[in-house]
Design goal:
This protein is α/β, with parallel strands linked by helices. It contains nine helices and 13 strands. Bound molecules: adenosine-5'-triphosphate (ATP). This is ABC transporter, nucleotide binding/ATPase protein.
Amino acid sequence: MRDVAASYPTGRLALEGISLDVRAGELCAVLGPNGAGKSTLVRVLSGSLRPARGEATLLGRPLAGMDRRAIARCVAVVPQGIASAPGFTVREVVMMGRAPHQGAWMLAAGRDEEAVARALDACDLVGLAGRPVAELSGGEQKRVAIARALAQEAQVLILDEPGAHLDIRHSIEVHEVVRREVAERRLACVAVLHDLNAAAQYADRVALLKAGRLVAHGTVEEVMTYRRLKDVFEAELYVGVNELDGSRYFLPVRGR
Ligand SMILES: Nc1ncnc2c1ncn2[C@@H]1O[C@H](COP(=O)(O)OP(=O)(O)OP(=O)(O)O)[C@@H](O)[C@H]1O
């Protein structure tokens, strides 16, 4: 993104002056308080919201000049919340991720079946593959959305709060899956995260947003400092360093 500004028809600018690069093999965590513009940034990157100013470029091509199908072959998005798919099974929903690769009749080929099987396995959904998605728990549906995005096999993966609704084990597993896919398949990944600890553990770089502006962008150590997080989130927190591996961890501190 180069100097991107974005707004909604109703209101003021939701993003302003955003310049951000995400490279292949890199997981960039986007952090910031509610209303900071994180989901708006996801909409611009996935081509669903046109920048009012500046330019978003995907694999060297301006997003503005690409049609939806071309974008879908390059970008897989896991949106915030859970999209219901009444009447469809888990396997069918994950297969929908293959649509950008299929012809007009949407017939699944061996390559599609392989990608779906791999994504179901990666997200621990093999046992649920035949179940209607509408009958799953919130966390299980979230994993289905992630599996669908993985099945899409796009070079760019965008996740809006992948850990939301997940219990501890599945939260760890989903973040591990994303991390592994990013490394092994050299994906460029943007993940909106509210969990500071997940960001510190899994991100290569962190983009910190506040009121539509990019306040800081860099490594965990550069960006996730006590002072900066306290200023941006307007909350008291404890920033610790694990002596064993030097990683950072964060605890909210009760207000006085
Ligand atoms: N569809 C919309 N129409 C008008 N304004 C919107 C729309 N969606 C978001 N906004 C506004 O744009 C700003 C940024 O919202 P955005 O959803 O990008 O924030 P966010 O950082 O993702 O927040 P959260 O952490 O709460 O999900 C907010 O002021 C919000 O009110």
